[in-house]
Amino acid sequence: MAFRSIVILLVVAAIAVLAALNWTTLATPSAISLGFTSFQAPLGLLMLGLTALLGVFFIAYVLSLQGSVLLETRRHVKEMQAQRELADRAELSRFTELRTYLESQHQQGQAALLARIDALESHFAARAQESDNATAAYVGQLEDQMRMRRDPVL
After folding, report:
1. Which is higher by pLDDT, 118 or 5?
2. Rounded to an integer, what distance in angstroms lies between the CA atom of residue 11 and that of residue 85?
């Protein structure tokens, strides 16, 4: 329990104990003046009743204040939830944009790599063809030289 609650309970208990111990004094009738009229009534009971009425009004005020705070808190929670959802959607949108960007970069890189591989492949094919032609030319020259050595007359 909070310190304030304990103090309030102690004050209420003290009032109840004093009222119980002094009930005969509280119930003794006396002349009460309201300014424009006067009458006979027990002043202690009247004051005790007004204190109880003040306590009831205080409790009603505290409950209404707590209710308004709860409603305000609920409104803030809804507002925060809406802001959280908005932030989540914005973050999701940024992730989607990032994914789209990364996919396009990947496709561009893949296309550049494939173009480079195709260029290298055609270059290697050309080099292989040149090598085959050079080898065939050397073999042809060797054959000619061998024929010339076998048939020197021709």
Report:
1. 118
2. 49
